């Protein structure tokens, strides 16, 4: 917990003079998405409020916002915890991803496309893989898909998928072999990027749809195995 709180203290400068619950929730959402707070983690009001320098009321409102986004859960007389997803949650996340991400690629229009963000995410993933940093590779993978969604140029779509990707990171935390999950998709990200660089959005959409289907099967396989083993790590 100390490492996470140190990171939050670094984020304090982002709040500025106009600290609001929305900005606090933005920071916490990002930290959850980056894997700093794994599923099941209890979030201490005193520790997090102190690290960010915000009032208890502001922090509680931020918690309420993130609970509404299904990232946190409040347990009576116990406190606020990072949510642990179910198999049904994972299936719904991927259903949403398929609907949105494939529609973004399909609706891109005529090339060329602004692919600098996608290319940077692929490069970051390659570096993480070389360093055997599988958490870093997972982060780069999510960044790739976030940049893909951003190609739509829609603030509403970005906002919708921001919480979806944060939930996705919660699912990744319960994968017991992160290298097996994430490493194959680095090459697939590169293939999607190359298809878009060639202006072939039809091929990019096809690759993406297969990619999401395979990823769903792998993550659900892990969740079902955990349930069969007695529900370890599942809520």
UniProtKB/TrEMBL annotation:
Superkingdom per UniProt: Bacteria
InterPro entries per the UniProt record, alphabetical: GntR_C (IPR011711), TF_FadR/GntR_C (IPR008920), Tscrpt_reg_HTH_GntR (IPR000524), WH-like_DNA-bd_sf (IPR036388), WH_DNA-bd_sf (IPR036390)
Any one GO molecular-function label of the UniProt entry: DNA-binding transcription factor activity
SUPFAM superfamilies registered for this protein in UniProt: GntR ligand-binding domain-like, Winged helix' DNA-binding domain
SMART domains: FCD (SM00895), HTH_GNTR (SM00345)
Alphabetical UniProt keywords: DNA-binding, Transcription, Transcription regulation
Protein's UniProt keywords contain Acyltransferase: no
Residues annotated as domain HTH gntR-type: 18-85
Protein's recorded name: GntR family transcriptional regulator
Organism: Streptomyces sp. R35
């Amino acid at each position: 917990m100390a490492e996470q709180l140190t990171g939050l203290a670094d984020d304090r400068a982002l709040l500025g003079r106009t600290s609001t619950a929305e900005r606090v929730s933005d920071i916490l959402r990002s930290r959850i998405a980056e894997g700093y707070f794994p599923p099941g983690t209890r979030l201490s009001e005193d520790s997090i409020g102190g690290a960010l320098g915000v009032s208890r009321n502001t922090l509680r409102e931020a918690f309420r916002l993130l609970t509404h986004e299904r990232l946190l859960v409040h347990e009576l007389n116990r406190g606020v915890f990072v949510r642990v997803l179910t198999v049904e949650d994972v299936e719904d996340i991927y259903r949403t991803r398929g609907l949105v991400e494939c529609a973004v690629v399909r609706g891109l229009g005529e090339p060329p496309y602004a692919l600098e963000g996608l290319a940077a995410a692929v490069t970051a993933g390659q570096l993480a893989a070389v360093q055997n940093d599988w958490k870093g590779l997972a982060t780069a993978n999510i960044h790739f898909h976030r940049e893909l969604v951003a190609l739509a140029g829609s603030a509403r779509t970005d906002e919708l998928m921001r919480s979806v990707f944060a939930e996705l990171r919660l699912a990744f935390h319960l994968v017991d072999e992160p290298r097996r999950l994430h490493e194959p998709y680095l090459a697939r990200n590169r293939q999607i990027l190359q298809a878009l660089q060639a202006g072939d959005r039809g091929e990019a959409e096809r690759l993406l749809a297969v990619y999401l289907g395979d990823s769903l099967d792998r993550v659900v396989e892990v969740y079902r195995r955990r349930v069969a083993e007695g529900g370890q790590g599942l809520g």
